[in-house]
Amino acid sequence: MIPYGKQDITEQDKEQILRILNSDFLTQGPQVPLFETKIAEYCNVKHAVASNSGTSSLHLACLALGLQEGDLVWTTPITFVASANCALYCKADIDFVDIDRHTFNICVKALQSKLQEARRLGKLPKIVIVVHMGGFPIDMKEIKNLSDKYGFRIIEDACHAIGSTYEKTQTGCCKFSDITIFSFHPVKLITTIEGGIATTNDSQLARNMQLLRSHGITRDDAEITRKAEPWYYEQQFLGYNYRMNDVQAALGISQLSRLDQYVNQRRQLASSYIRELEELPLSVQHEIKETRSAYHLFIIRINSSDVKNSNTFIIEQLRKKKIHANLHYIPVHTQPYFQKLGFKMGAYPEAELYYREALTLPLFPKLSIDDQSYIIQCLKDLI
Ligand SMILES: *Cc1c(COP(=O)(O)O)cnc(C)c1O
Fold it and tell me: What are the residues whose beta carbons fall under 8 Å from the beta carbon of 107, sequence distance 6 or more?
């Protein structure tokens, strides 16, 4: 089976993992701060706070921004469920904004009109979580303008988008947002097996996330409330154990050294797909001006009015031919859990149309030219 995505683990990665296993610290040692420094340098941002998953980092980001019961978070329905669940963990309410037909990202116009309406009703969101779907950066200046006008905070769910750029800035620099989140799950661009990180330029937000990822405990003299014995520590908030360990961080450092190469390989494979599929009645994801996608996913849309076969049929046929095509994502509001929360089918028509037309083709750095030609040929035969 050709998977839709696959990690690349090298001898260098394995050596680094062994080195840490043979060292004094398996967790809470020097590797996590080192990984954080390297990510911060890569993204040109002041702080990075690692955790045990992208989902944990999203939760920490919401907590650090003070999200609580009665608050409202908006995100896109075309994302992994974690982008919405992080709000629910904080007992806040979640709502969605429909997507743009061409970028597959949250639609800026739809966001703008929903904000206008929300202001009228006195129900503005505290946080908007934008997702750079497939690694394609959204127009962050527009989002920032709306945030200035309507007073919401911005989290970038960039779980697909480490290595992408927007107007020559690296995604994760937080020039136009409060916090950016990356995931290092094996299907993502680089991996720490499981793992995530949050970047920010705000030192208070970074400190909040550091405390909350480790039980809300501090050992810092400047923070503890009384003169302390050397063994003293203090729990000041209800935190979690969301720590990344040293083995993961060392793997992350090793992987990060190949990130730019990976993105280049992904972009090359993507341009072959685009060239070869040009004549078929389908569309590809639109890369907006002055952005460079990291191409975490290669998504096509079958134009349902031109093609008799549905995306479901094509995915099934490709899988019979040992090509693991996939669909990212099932619109979050259509999940049974969200239906129970009161979301209705038909509420986000663009997201639902996307779901009937989209499919994800295999794309990862080590996808061979032969395998890619086979995928392209199978697709041409089917459509
Ligand atoms: C993968 C992913 C997450 C969650 O990351 P984990 O590391 O698997 O917890 C969140 N949001 C998006 C958009 C993702 O793709």
Answer: 97, 98, 99, 100, 350
Element (H or E) spanning 47, and its range? strand 47-51
Which pairs with CB-CB distance under 8 Å and at least 24 residues apart come from 341-349? 341/94, 343/96, 347/96, 348/77, 348/96, 348/98, 348/99, 349/98
The whole-number pLDDT of residue 209 equals 98
pLDDT at 226: 87
164 CB under 6 A from ligand 1? no
- Ligand 1 touching residue 157 (CB < 6 A): yes
Task: With cut-offs at 50, 70 and 90, classify the pLDDT of residue 243.
Answer: very high
Q: What is the pLDDT of residue 227?
A: 81
* pLDDT in the model for residue 105: 98
Strand order through the sheet with 47-51: 47-51, 196-200, 179-183, 153-157, 127-131, 72-75, 93-96
- Give the type of residue at 76: T
Rounded distance between C-alpha atoms, residue 13 and residue 20, angstroms = 11
Ligand 1 binding pocket mutation candidate from 55, 79, 89, 136 (most atoms within 8 A of CB) = 55
Ligand 1 atom with the smallest distance to the CA of 79 is: 13
| DSSP category for residue 100 | P
Burial 145-156 (b: 16+ CB within 10 A, else e): ebbeebebbbbb
Closest by CA to 362, choosing from 352, 349, 374, is 374
